[in-house]
Specification:
Layout: E1 25-26, E2 31-32, E3 41-44, E4 47-50, E5 53-55, E6 58-61, H1 72-82, E7 86-90, H2 93-96, H3 111-120, E8 124-128, H4 159-176, E9 187-191, H5 203-215, E10 221-226, H6 230-236, E11 242-247, H7 252-261, E12 268-273, H8 289-301, E13 305-309, E14 314-315, E15 323-326, E16 331-334, E17 338-339, H9 353-363, E18 383-385, E19 389-392, H10 397-400, E20 404-406, E21 421-429, E22 432-439, E23 442-443, E24 445-450, E25 453-459, E26 467-471, E27 475-483, E28 499-500, E29 504-506, E30 509-510, E31 514-519, E32 530-531, E33 538-546, E34 552-555, E35 561-566, E36 569-575, E37 582-585, E38 593-601, E39 609-612
């Protein structure tokens, strides 16, 4: 998804059963059909055929990596009840390989299981494997370890990047190849890159990705999706691959733009933006259900295919939320934990008013399941609990991490750290006059301490900001705890390493001799909680008792900023600036009886933690 800009086949095409699959013949600016291929999704004139029969794609986006796997079947069944016949999903490379060489397709990352579950509930599947996906996901789905080398080119035909992508595709695509419709499976199409025209025009890069997909057994229809501007369509498509278009609102002009680029072929809106996402500190976004449904009606009346982005609201659990950068204002914009998106199916499975209006529209054009609609999943009753123990983060450094020593600060990716916080410590010789402390290359906020006393906070959105640091004694221990937001996922600032990438200055003097501690915080077992409370940054523990697992929402009124774990699972970030006021805690994370909550509050804790029965997205 191109998350900032909301807003051909080139040349002649020989028809006669146009097929974009294993039988395609590549020519100059055209695709020549091979009539013998009839299995899978193919193209004939302006329509799709599936196994030789006319087929219209009525799809919706759902991300397996944003929905608990125990809820996959439920959410897919709700998509089918909406009247959809296909589910789209991105593949997030960093979700499967957060650390170099440690590839994981088990448990929550079992992509094959997700595809097979979709087939079980009657849905076809289109796959958008990236390697870049945007999606308001950390670093647009690219793994953080790519940033260990600050000079590595991204999203272009440079050998170093290309080889790493080829290696990843060589692991990923053979898992999906047997699931293609050309071999009797549910997967009908694959996307090449993702809205590349919004970023660049490297056709060699796109063509290499296409060839790599074919070389790894992908013989399904391929497509490129882009925004409707001419420069996006020209830069982001290949002449022998189906072009599609992404937009919100009235489809008339976007489809006209697609027709100007690609005179013949199916009209397909591969992302119809039926809602929008939220940044911290900005208003919660919603769209009018009646208007949204009316625009879907126009798409279907044009005999076009469509994919609702999103069909299923979901969650940026853990550290996975991405960020944008507003070039006009020069501000970094981190994305909230919820990815509800004001979708037809809400983050906790709600069938919204938008669901019902869109379903009515689909029923006027295609058959929808004639079955009772799924009920709302059960909710936990509301209650409130107070933390009973706490421990300071700076007091727990030895139990959380081992120090790394460097002359100058380095960013977390250079130390092999994919996510979390990072801590820097040095000593400043004195006595000397008080001077302003400034950090060059800060991502994203730094709490500044002198001999354990919090002096202030620096923020990347205030590059001229400083904190006065006195050094009245022989020396002062300086601590900087860097609080990270998501890595930028869209545009030309993708190279967004976390921590400190440049110098720390006290006055005009650069400080050297640093002890650095990566804090991925993926193992809290070493924490030694003590009864009572602690001022931030500190971990706070509470016990919450329930009778039977169900969905709930955790709110922290009076708390300022931090992250929350439920029974060892990191739900995500909270921040008092909103708009989100409660974190979704899905039923599979709860147990009957006592449940442990751990809150890392970076500033001042509130008095209690609230379990609520309803979401609060602002």
């Amino acid at each position: 998804m191109g998350s900032v800009n909301r807003r051909g086949f080139l040349g002649s095409i020989a028809l006669g059963g146009l097929a974009l699959g294993s039988g395609m013949v590549l020519g100059t600016n055209r695709v020549v059909a091979q009539a013998q291929q009839s299995s899978g999704l193919t193209v004939r004139g302006d329509e799709f055929l599936l196994d030789g029969e006319p087929f219209r794609i009525i799809a919706g986006e759902m991300h397996y990596f944003r929905t608990h796997p125990d809820h996959w079947r439920d959410r897919l069944a709700r998509m089918r009840a909406l009247g959809l016949n296909t589910v789209d999903t991105y593949v997030a490379w960093n979700f499967h390989e957060p650390r170099r060489g440690a590839v994981d397709f088990s448990g929550w990352r079992d992509l094959v299981r997700f595809v097979e579950t979709a087939a079980d509930v009657g849905l076809k599947v289109t796959v958008r494997p990236g390697p870049y996906i945007c999606a308001e996901w950390d670093f647009g789905g690219l793994p953080a370890w790519l940033l260990a080398d600050p000079d590595l080119p991204l999203r272009c035909d440079e050998l170093a990047y290309r080889d790493l992508v080829d290696e990843w595709f060589g692991v990923l695509l053979p898992r999906l190849a047997p699931l293609q419709a050309t071999r009797g499976g549910p997967v009908i199409a694959f996307q090449v890159e993702n809205e590349y025209g919004s970023y660049g025009n490297d056709q060699v890069h796109l063509d290499h990705l296409r060839k790599t997909m074919r070389g790894n057994g992908i013989d399904s229809l391929l497509f490129c999706s882009n925004g409707p501007s001419e420069w996006m369509l020209r830069g982001g498509n290949l002449p022998d691959v189906l072009a599609t278009v992404n937009f919100d609102g009235d489809p008339t002009e976007p489809f006209a733009a697609l027709r100007r680029y690609q005179p013949e072929g199916p009209l397909w809106c591969t992302e119809f933006w039926d809602g929008w996402f939220d940044h911290w500190g900005e208003p919660h976004h919603t769209t009018d259900p009646v208007k949204t449904a009316a625009d879907v009606e126009k798409i279907l009346a044009a005999k076009a295919s469509v994919s609702l982005y999103m069909a299923v609201g979901s969650t940026n659990f853990g550290w996975w939320a991405g960020a944008n950068f507003d070039e006009e204002n020069g501000t970094y914009q981190p994305t909230v934990t919820s990815y509800d998106y004001d979708a037809p199916i809400g983050e906790a499975g709600e069938l919204t008013t938008k669901f019902h209006r869109i379903r009515e529209v689909i029923a006027r054009h295609e058959q929808v399941p004639d079955e009772p609609l799924p009920e709302l999943p059960p909710r936990l009753p509301a209650q409130r609990v107070q933390p009973n123990a706490a421990v300071g983060l700076l007091d727990s450094l030895d139990s959380l991490s081992k120090p790394v020593r460097r002359s100058a600060p380095v960013h977390m990716e250079a130390l092999g750290q994919p996510y979390g916080l990072i801590h820097y410590r040095t000593r400043v010789q004195g006595p000397r006059e008080t001077a302003a402390l400034r950090v060059r290359g800060l991502a994203d906020r730094a709490l500044v301490f002198a001999d354990g006393e919090l002096l202030g906070t620096l923020d990347r959105n205030d590059p001229k900001g400083s904190v006065e640091v006195p050094v009245p004694r022989e020396s002062v221990q300086l601590d900087l705890l860097v609080d990270t937001g998501g890595r930028i996922n869209y545009g030309h600032r993708l190279n967004d390493p976390k921590g400190i990438t440049d110098r720390v200055l006290h006055g005009s003097q650069a400080l050297f001799g640093w002890e650095i501690r990566p804090l991925p915080l993926d193992d809290l077992s070493g924490l030694r909680f003590r009864p009572g409370t602690a001022s931030g940054p500190a971990f706070h523990r509470a016990v919450l008792r329930i009778d039977e697992p169900a969905d709930g929402f955790l709110a922290l009124p009076g708390w300022e900023k931090g992250v929350v774990w439920l029974n060892g699972f990191l739900l995500g970030r909270y921040w008092s600036i909103g708009p989100q006021r409660a974190l979704y805690a899905p039923s599979p994370l709860w147990i009957a009886g006592e449940n442990e909550l751990i809150v890392l509050e970076l500033h001042q804790p509130g008095g209690s933690i609230e379990l609520r029965s309803e979401p609060d997205l602002g």
